[in-house]
Design brief:
Keywords: Signal. The protein is an alpha+beta fold and about 100 residues long. The chain is built from 3 helices and 5 strands. A hairpin with a 2-residue loop joins strand 2 and strand 3. The longest helix has 15 residues.
């Protein structure tokens, strides 16, 4: 899990330091990104984490299992960090004595 978080944080940092041509393809205003994720993919916010005082990482997931990870800054700019299919939320259950 730690390796995954390091990978996500590095990708988020790279997204905000990307070359302008690349950034134009992967970045947009946060409101526009959220609207597009909802309309095109039916993805809704599921989780978020603070990278630093200027950037948060958000995970959007659909009922069909598609997912998108966004890095959003304090200026309202969001960049796609990663996308995929087959998202499954982990379910934690307590072990009962004797099981």
């Amino acid at each position: 899990m730690t390796r995954l978080m390091v990978t996500i944080l590095c990708a988020a940092a790279a997204a905000f330091s990307a070359a302008p041509a690349m950034a134009a393809e992967q970045c947009a205003a946060r409101a526009d990104m959220i609207k597009a994720l909802g309309e095109k993919f039916r993805e809704n916010p599921t989780a978020l984490g603070v990278v630093n005082r200027n950037v948060i990482v958000e995970v959007f997931v659909s009922d069909q299992g598609t997912w998108t990870i966004l890095a959003s800054d304090t200026r309202g700019q969001s960049c796609v960090v990663s996308v995929g299919e087959g998202w499954e939320s982990a379910v934690t259950t307590a072990a009962l004595p004797g099981t």
